[in-house]
Design a protein that fits this description.
The complex is a heterodimer of chains A (336) and B (238).
Chain A (H helix, E strand, L loop, with lengths): L4 E6 L4 E8 L3 E9 L1 H5 L6 H23 L8 E7 L3 H18 L3 E5 H12 L7 E6 L4 E6 L5 E6 L5 H11 L6 H9 L24 H17 L4 H26 L4 E5 L6 H13 L4 E2 L3 H4 L4 H6 L1 H5 L18
Parallel strand pairs in A: 1-4, 4-5, 6-9, 9-10
Antiparallel strand pairs in A: 1-2, 2-3, 6-7, 7-8
Chain B lengths: L2 E5 L5 E7 L2 E8 L5 H15 L9 E7 L3 H18 L3 E5 H6 L8 E8 L4 E10 L1 E12 H15 L3 E5 L7 H8 L3 E2 L3 H4 L7 H9 L18 H7 L4
Parallel strand pairs in B: 1-4, 4-5, 6-9, 9-10
Antiparallel strand pairs in B: 1-2, 2-3, 6-7, 7-8
Helix pairs in contact in B: 1-2
Bound molecules: zinc ion.
The site of zinc ion has 6 residues of chain A, from helix 4.
Chain lengths: 336, 238
């Protein structure tokens, strides 16, 4: 069998990442240069700061991916790059570099949708996923529900109308002084508290569509937190637990409802917030009741990485579905 | 010695293939299309027309700044990719040096390239030509009034009869410059007003001969300005 090795490049947010994946499956290297420490000072990702770090680090990150894979530049068959959606200035660094690198090597270029990359992280690690499958992609940048009819066939059935779930975690963690990034910080605090002591709304759970909204939950949490603080009754752990429970409940319930409606054979989680253990636990519980298997990537492949980009480009390579020299980057774009 | 020069620091995208005494090809685009779409096709055309590949190039030249943050990164990202793949070295050229080279031989005048930095500011430096082009005031971000005062001071001390201003930072403050300098200000015709990739050769060949190459592992644009969030952090607003 012919071996296809693809270099993936990912710069859509605050990770400068490069990876080489063989045949859409074997991760030969997976380099992620995280900027979390830099953005911590700002309490969130600053697009211009992220772009500046990307342009500084990109060549070294890509070269390291080759060294770790034990390959020379000439050994790859194609260059894949995230070109949407994400922070436009950040995306443009990866796209410009990838185009120059592919052109210089005389190798084809493949454009990858970041969201699809997140979903594909599941196929890197699981080979028994049956279709149709419902996939919840949830991170600091996105909250989307998709129905997958095959590895490459997917349809968007719902998404957040305002903040992404990870963004809500970040903002709430910030006003509760729990630090950045908010997801892990709130999860940790929630472990010491109890949900239900306070009461926050389960937004949109009464609607039978698959859209989400988290900005109302964020505001409700902020107001409640201020009120409790004025009374001197604020318990940071119980508050974190209730906020996490409110957010997780809506994500999990809508995902499982979608699985029922579309006769799914599997349920999948993807994206940085898929690393949240409470989300995994609640979705698993609900999926178990329907007798459906739940899949999610290992922690390293949940957060932004380039292995998911290199891996997901494999079938595009086989179809010779290559990007032109004038490939651009786009901040937003429908998942299809 | 063949150089591929690439610039997307300002609203202009430019690509040139040149050697020391000959410009073989030059493309200049000041039509509103994103650099990320136009730049690599321009490079591809330049090399094809000159019947060469990156293998035939001695070095790549790219503008290091100042200019549009995103524009600078598109040019530098592309050139870093080309350089890593081909193993060809990179020389960096200041956008202001490159612009000043449009006014060679203006011996009687101070040469002042200005790039629009918005907020009533420009990125600028002051040059004089005396057989060679020399930067006499280093580049930084200037308030327009502050720059005028500096120009007047240098004009007096060097006995220049006027100033030649060029670059996209001229237009937003045109009335102001005209008011301040009156008939002692000269503005080049359109073909010399904005950055020309071929003009990078004026500086690039000396750098190549001295092997003054950039370290692409750490190379970053010279922005001459922090990001908005960094200013706020410094002022203690975050
Ligand atoms: Zn992501």
């Amino acid at each position: 069998m012919q071996e296809v090795k693809i270099l993936g490049i990912e710069t859509s947010c605050d990770e400068t990442a490069a990876s080489i994946v063989k045949n859409g499956k074997d991760i030969m290297s997976n380099v992620v240069n995280s900027q979390i420490k830099i953005h911590q000072a700002f309490g969130g990702v600053v697009p211009e700061v992220a772009s500046r770090r990307h342009i500084e680090n990109i060549a070294l990150v890509v070269d390291t991916a080759f060294k770790e894979a034990g390959l020379s530049y000439e050994d790859i068959d194609a260059v894949a790059v995230t070109n949407r959606p994400g922070l436009i200035g950040a995306l443009l660094v990866g796209v410009s570099f990838a185009k120059g690198f592919a052109y210089g090597l005389n190798k084809p270029l493949i454009a990858v949708n970041h969201l699809y990359g997140h979903i594909y992280a599941n196929f890197l690690e699981h080979s028994d996923i049956r279709f149709p499958a419902v996939c919840l992609v949830v991170s600091g940048g996105h909250t989307s529900l998709l129905v997958m009819k095959g590895t490459e066939e997917y349809e968007l059935i719902g998404e957040t109308l305002d903040d992404a779930a990870g963004e809500a975690f970040d903002k709430v963690a910030r006003f509760m002084n729990l630090g950045y990034p908010g997801g892990p910080a709130i999860q940790k605090a929630a472990e010491k508290g109890q949900a239900g002591k306070y009461s926050l709304p389960r937004v949109f759970l009464d609607r039978d569509d698959f859209d989400f909204s988290f900005s109302g939950l964020k505001t409700a949490a902020m107001n409640l937190w201020n009120k409790l603080n004025r009374k001197g009754e604020a318990d940071v752990y119980d508050m974190a637990a209730e906020f996490q429970a409110a957010l997780v409940e809506v994500l999990a319930e809508k995902t499982v409802r979608a699985a029922k409606k579309y006769n799914a054979q599997s349920v999948m989680l993807a994206g940085g917030v898929a690393a949240n253990s409470e989300l995994r636990r609640v979705v698993k519980q609900k999926a178990d009741k329907l007798g459906l298997p739940l899949y999610y990537p290992s922690l390293k492949l949940c957060t932004d990485n380039a292995a998911m980009i290199a891996g997901s480009a494999y079938h595009r390579y086989l179809k010779q579905d290559f990007a032109p020299l004038n490939l651009n980057a786009y901040a937003t774009m429908s998942i299809l | 010695m063949l150089v591929l020069a690439v610039d997307s620091a300002t609203p202009v995208a430019g690509v040139a293939v040149l050697n020391r005494d000959k410009v073989l090809y030059e493309e200049f685009c000041n039509y509103k299309k994103t650099h990320s779409e136009t730049l690599l096709p321009m490079i591809d055309r330049a090399l094809k027309v000159c019947e060469c590949t990156l293998d035939d190039i001695t070095a790549l030249a790219v503008t290091i700044g100042p200019g549009s943050f995103t524009g600078l990164r598109i040019g530098m990202g592309t050139v870093k990719g080309l350089s890593l793949a081909s193993g060809k070295p990179v020389v960096t050229i200041s956008t202001l040096d490159m612009l000043a080279a449009n006014a060679l031989y203006a011996e009687d005048l101070l040469i002042v390239p200005v790039l629009d930095a918005r907020k009533n500011e420009v990125y600028s430096a002051i040059y004089e030509f005396h057989g060679i082009m020399q930067k006499i005031v280093p580049e930084k971000t200037w308030g327009t009034e502050e720059l005028v005062l500096k120009i007047e001071e240098e004009k007096k001390s060097l006995g220049k009869k006027g100033v030649i201003m060029l670059g996209d930072g001229f237009y937003p403050y045109e009335d102001y410059w005209r008011n301040m300098f009156g008939e002692n200000m000269f503005v080049p015709p359109p073909h010399l007003m904005l950055p020309r990739a071929a003009a990078m050769g004026v500086w690039a060949f000396d750098k190549i001969e001295k092997e003054d190459f950039a370290d692409i592992w750490t190379l970053s644009p010279v922005y001459l300005r922090l990001s908005e969030a960094e200013y706020r952090l410094r002022r203690g607003e975050l």
